[in-house]
């Protein structure tokens, strides 16, 4: 806790706001189902699109379900799917980048051209084709989001790794007879961590928006469960009434992505300074 507080104090004000928003939604994803007043699919209100009240803090949705409960459950899918896919994309892309940087030659060419092919496919089109072919499931959504953003991470990681591979200490390690895997993991990777963490945050934001877009099209998390994008889609008819059922999940997506961006920007500035 002391380390966390000292880290928070070292950030500028926008970074602290971003850290607060990210931690808030992470805690909501972790503890939300325990704090939710009702079951995720329970019909608890005879009226639909009820306003905020003491009984229903965020009103009810288009079927009379508690919006707060569904929001707390939906945050879990959005945060953990986004974070899991971002980690998978970053680990895969960075691993391929290290292989390409250490071996170079034809290995670098094959991996780089493969990544160029993947990055040329629009993410939404790729996702639509995969869901149409295999149906929507949590594991498929995780895989789609990860594969979509591997090439972007690979490009950044490869550029950093190639610069580091030309450094004197890496040349010295090669002269000592170090194996490629020891050079990659012991000499190059530790010096890539900070920019890769910043890139991980950006991938997370992109993936959250991608998954929310798929859910808005009805191709994401399926009923009775829902992520934040699904909550916006299923309550779209309440937009003319300004119903909390559609405003709350839209604000949740906005605060999560803006908070992550503010935190990433603050970390980049801190590193530059």
Automatic annotation (TrEMBL):
Organismal lineage: Bacteria, Pseudomonadati, Pseudomonadota, Alphaproteobacteria, Sphingomonadales
Keywords: Cell membrane, Membrane, Transmembrane, Transmembrane helix, Transport
Provenance organism: Novosphingobium clariflavum
Main location group: membrane
Protein's UniProt keywords contain Cell membrane: yes
Family: Belongs to the binding-protein-dependent transport system permease family.
PROSITE patterns per record: ABC_TM1
Membrane topology: Multi-pass membrane protein
Location within or outside the cell: Cell membrane
Protein name per its UniProtKB record: ABC transporter permease
